[in-house]
């Protein structure tokens, strides 16, 4: 009985949960999270405002074009999505491109603000 109690105390003091308590996010993950949220917010805005007149199954080209004209041209212009089509590879490429574009816009705004 004493051994079980001693083992329990040792586990509580030196167990794996010790490291989890004090972890902090680094600045890079916070920045990525903000960029992800901004791209998602832009997507939701496009779904609800600019492309609301189109049924959701047919709206992906409209939504992607609204989110980022440049990325849409780069990824979907040659072969646009058919109504209801889901192309995961190009969707990932588009998402990556839109996030990179948002990151560059934020960096340009910071540089402009710094120059002023």
TrEMBL record:
Q: Which residues form the signal peptide?
A: 1-15
Keyword annotations of the record: Signal
| Superkingdom of this protein's organism | Eukaryota
Report the InterPro entries cross-referenced here.
DUF4787
Protein name, entry field: Uncharacterized protein
């Amino acid at each position: 009985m004493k051994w079980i109690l001693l083992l329990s105390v040792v586990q509580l003091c030196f167990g794996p949960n010790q490291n989890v308590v004090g972890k902090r996010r680094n600045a890079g993950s916070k920045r990525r999270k903000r960029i992800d949220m901004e791209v998602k917010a832009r997507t939701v805005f496009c779904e609800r405002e600019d492309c609301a007149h189109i049924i959701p199954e047919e709206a992906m080209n409209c939504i992607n074009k609204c989110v980022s004209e440049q990325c849409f041209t780069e990824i979907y212009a040659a072969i646009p999505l058919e109504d209801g089509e889901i192309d995961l590879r190009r969707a990932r490429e588009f998402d990556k491109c839109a996030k990179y574009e948002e990151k560059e816009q934020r960096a340009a705004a910071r540089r402009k603000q710094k120059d002023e």
